[in-house]
Each structure stands twice: as C-alpha cells, then as structure tokens.
Amino acid sequence: MKQLTILAFLLLSVFTSAIAQTGEPKHKLVMQLNTSDTLIWKGLMNNLKNLKAGWGDSVKVEVVVHGPGVQFMMKDKTTQADKIAQFKKMGIDFVVCENTLRERKVSKDQLLPEAGFVKMGVGEIILKQEAGWSYIKL
Amino acid sequence: MKQLTILAFLLLSVFTSAIAQTGEPKHKLVMQLNTSDTLIWKGLMNNLKNLKAGWGDSVKVEVVVHGPGVQFMMKDKTTQADKIAQFKKMGIDFVVCENTLRERKVSKDQLLPEAGFVKMGVGEIILKQEAGWSYIKL
Amino acid sequence: MKQLTILAFLLLSVFTSAIAQTGEPKHKLVMQLNTSDTLIWKGLMNNLKNLKAGWGDSVKVEVVVHGPGVQFMMKDKTTQADKIAQFKKMGIDFVVCENTLRERKVSKDQLLPEAGFVKMGVGEIILKQEAGWSYIKL
C-alpha cells in the first residue's frame, strides 16, 4: 500500500510538472530580432498585432534584440517607438543583449524606456526554448 | 487491485500520448517562408527535394507562408509553380496566412490551387512547435 | 507485487530517459548558417565568443552549414578561418551538408580542415531538435 502511495505521488509529480509547463499563459513565444532592416521591424509589428488580436492574453511574447537589431530599440534610430510603447503596455517584453550594447558602445540612455535587458541575447533564446517556449526568427 | 488498474491506465495514457506525439510520420517539420527573395524560394525547393529523397514518407512537412513570402504562392509572382504542384502531390502542405492576404489585399483567386490556409501564420508555427514539430526558418 | 515491480520499472525508465535528455552539457544548441553574407558570419563569431565566455563548457554548439552558407567553410572564400580553428579547438563543431557540396560541385578538399559532414543539413537540424537541442537561425 505504501508503495502504491509512492507511485501515485510520483505520477502526480509527472502530471503536475506537465501542467506547470503548459501553465498560464497558454502560449509562450520568444522572437529573435537581429537585423537593422526596417521592413523586418514593420513585419514584427504586424506579427505582434495579429498575435494579440487573435490570442489576447493567452499568449506571452518576449522579443530578444541583439546584434544590428539593437537599432530597433534606439531612440534616434527606431521607426517603431510608438508601437513598441503600445505593445509593452499590452504585456509584450522587449529585451536587449548587454553584450551587444558593450560591443557597439551603445549606452542604456540611448534606448527606449521600454527596453529590458539580458546578459546575452543568444543565451536568453536558448533558455526560453529550454523552458518550453516556441521560437520564431524574424 | 483497483488502484493498480488505475495506475496502469494512467501509465498507459502517458505512453500512448508519448507515442502519439512521435507517431507516424517519424519526423515533422514546419518551415517558415516570409520573404520575397526568389533565391530563398529556390533554396526551399532544394531542401524539400533533399528531405523527400533522404527520408521519403517518414517526414511530414508544412510550409507556412506569410508576410512578403505570400508572393511565393501567387500565380503571377511565383517562380516555383511547377515544383510546388509536385511537392503538394508528394504530401507537402503549403499554407498561407489569411491575415497577410487581408493586409496585402490579395484574394485567394490569385493564389496557386495548392494553397491551404491558416488564420495566422505566426500562430500556426507556434501551434506546430507546441505539438512537437521541428522548426526551420528559411 | 510483480505488477508493482513492473510499474516501478516503467516509472524508472521514464525518469532515466528524462535525465538522459537534459544530460551533460547543460545547454545544447544547433545553429543554422545558410547565407554567404559575411556580416552574418561575423555575427556568428560574436555569438560563439559570447556563448563560450558566458557559459564555458556547459554549452555544446553545432553549426550546420548548408546552401550558400558553404562558402563560410571554403578555404578560398571564408573570412573567418582563424576564428573557426579557434572555436573548433574549444569544442564547437562545424558540419557541412553533403547535398550542398554535390549540388554546388564543391569538393571536401576545398573546405577548411575543421569541417565535419552530414548527409543533409536540414535533416541534421531536425534530428538535433528532436533530441532536445535548442535551435537558432542566423
């Protein structure tokens, strides 16, 4: 009987763990932006608009910005400041790679106030995938 | 004994679910095409040819077309109509994002007859990854 | 009792399999390089440098080179020969798609000595994802 209880407990752990992984929100997406191509930036804005229109709060999105993509978050370079502010209010996170800032001599002052930060953009994308998030490259 | 039966049933569910996910076909791939670059389209044709040559029916492929990539499926824009028809006969699916059609004022009449449809291209790619499909960005 | 033993064995298999998948090294990443754009190559070198600086031997990386990306590994085309040699010594693998070599009439002699080989680049990326590796497209 005791063994049965242990087995039941183990099974419960497996199921609980599975539930925790799907969790709330239902869908989790990490997007990678590493280009200064403003048409790609515009495409990203469309993707975010459609995702929120279609799935609302059931989708969590984090945009990881690194390499030449850093210009997307720079006050005097971006073409999407207003939309970034709107999407941030809707719960979408924009995180910038600190390695990129150092390599390109960009200070945090030069970035939009919506910017969050991660030590390493590529590492962040890996960690999110390991945590079960879907991945889309722009 | 009853508890044992319940446990056995639960275990069976876990295994059945695992088998269903790996299932048949053995490999499942969602590819993302969001560019009007005809060299990338040509590369995709090569990838599909090699995948079918190497893995035959053990691989299931769905190509999700959105954004500027929609031209790949437009009768008067595509450079790959014949090959798309061939690959469709071999079981490869080409699905177009309906948000893209609306935003770009493209009607379904303008698309190749092989086109399938999804409400949201990015959402489809997420759903496939959640279902255990591999993902490749072109 | 026999049934209990069988159940315990099955459970153990599930857990062992889960542990084997996370295994050592902690992080596993397959990167896809299919472009002849030398700025993207330079970005890859930065990514690899930062990954090894940040995570050391806890990250395993394989770069899959196919399509126009093959030039990255060609002695008389690459701009990154020295760094490729360095990263190879640090345990990063660079594998070239043999389908690409055949299609582009490139012989293995023309490649850097650090090149490894896979039958099909796209297939390799699928297999790695199926084995639980994270994926990043350059």
UniProtKB/TrEMBL annotation, chains A, B, C:
Pfam family, one: DsrE
Taxonomy, superkingdom: Bacteria
Signal peptide: 1-20
Signal found in the keyword field: yes
Signal listed as a keyword: yes
UniProt keyword terms in alphabetical order: Signal
Gene3D superfamilies in UniProt: DsrEFH-like
Protein name: DsrE family protein
Natural source organism: Flavihumibacter fluminis
